[in-house]
Amino acid sequence: TAAQTSANSQLTTDKSVSISGEYIGILFQGTVAISLAVKPAFGIVDTVRGETRLVRPVQLLMFGTELGSGDYMAAPFIAPSFAEGFAVCPRGWILALDSTATGEQTGRGGSCTQCRISQYSVNPLAGASSGVPSCFNCPRSAICSGGDEVRFTRGRWVVANGMYTLVGCPQGNQLVNSIGGQFSHDSQDCVACTNHQYIINPNNSAFSCQNCPIGASCDGSSLTSLVAGAVWAAENSTGRYVLQSCPPGYERQATTVDAQQCVRCAAGKYCVGGSAAAVSCLDGQYAPPGSNASGDCQLAVMVELIAVLPMSQEQFGAAQQENFLLSVALASDMPVRFVYIAQVVSMRRAGSGIQITSRVAANSADKAQDVASRLSAERLNTQLEARNLPKVTSFSARAVITPSSFDSFELSTVVGGSVGGFVVFLLALLGVGVLLRRLREQAAYRALVAAFRSAKPGDPAGHAFTSFKLHKSYAAVQVLGKGTFGCVVKMRTVNGNQVVAIKMLVPQRGTAFDDRERRQLMREAGVLELMTRCKCDRASIRHHIKLSLGSQFTQFQKRSEKNKREVNRRSVKLGSRINEPSWILRHLDILNCRTIVL
Q: Which of 206, 441, 480, 498 has CB 3.0 to 4.6 Å from 468, enough for a Cys bridge?
């Protein structure tokens, strides 16, 4: 490279960027082509935006001396053009920059370098280190021949951010592209799941290979339920399959993710399916394994067998339990579906074994006694040895939960018991109804007492002014008057056809009448009875008479002026006998009793 001096036209070389060399040749004819490798100085290299810029334009000058004559020879300046940006170097090459700048004005020198075998480049400005172009290492699932030649053996790859990126894997493979949650180019790979695993989405690095639950079988890519009719649902948030429901006759168990399974309903229980738990039959009933309805629970007499085996609970696995049940069934001459294990516990003394409580269901008390008599330690040990199980060190068998009249248990007994239970239920329901009614009556009476004690004549009367027995027939309208024991209230029938006045009596204190109040009430009741006998309640002209038996006078009020004068004249003659109700009523003829209403 060279620069031209502005003061004169003399050409001088820039030693810091010059390319030196000699070529001696004699040409008689033809053309000579000379190739030069130029290393320009870059002032800007932006690997993100794909921008490259030289410090200054490059000019090439060819000059020399003719050896024969010694004349100076020079060619015109040549201004070469350089590719820029992402095309600054050919595909498969990178722009290799000097580690340090040669000067403030010269920038950093750069040259195109081809990637070697086991490396590749699809962008000359991209690199494994941020801001520094470099070749990428060949991915694990690829073969790189140098440059941009890359052949992938598995997975789907696309060019993104100047490099090959793994975006999908075959079924049964996990997409791996990070270390510690951070993207890593060199760790990209499709990792196959084992035969005891599955994966929901092989095209997303968020999903990983999951262990197969014990209630399913897996082939590395998918999950298949071991029980037909079970429903498994993919849960994208966790990347796992979740057991949602089981068919009837099975119980869903999901204590852990790996322990999810549909377990056949145990003996003595029934399972309706779905996510519902197993339901135990009532005492004295039995249902065979796999039952799916309450109707499968049938009356039975149980034979309880308690045996101790010299082994641990860990050793007493599913296979050993099945062999134990089969041994008990053969020793008792009963089908294995009528035998089940109720409990397995470790003995308190270490190394002494486990205690197994199993039961055999019989259809009658006699059958149960027969099974219990046949079961013996010798018969059971014979069957256990045949199935590679240790002999029992302790053994007992007895019939339990035996109804006293099981053999004569007939439909009439069931019906009679059901009817009796229904009658008891009705009586209990009736008693509850009576109690509730009594409580409502007491609440209404307390409200009545409180309302009357605070009432004044002329006040509007509300719902509280009617007793519990009058609620359905009358509606209180207004307080007409207030006396010693209560109030006279204007009421209207519920249908609104009749207006009446009703006197309501309440104690002066508390919620019950004392002896003195009861004696006064009895005297007033006697007056009312005599007036009723005289038919004074059948009046055509309404008059009012108020008797205050606790006072020393009787006041008669009449609308008719004539009757009023007659009452005043006769009242004087009553004198000290005014407190005798029977005497008063005998003289009520002077008041025209047929027209009086109390």
A: 441
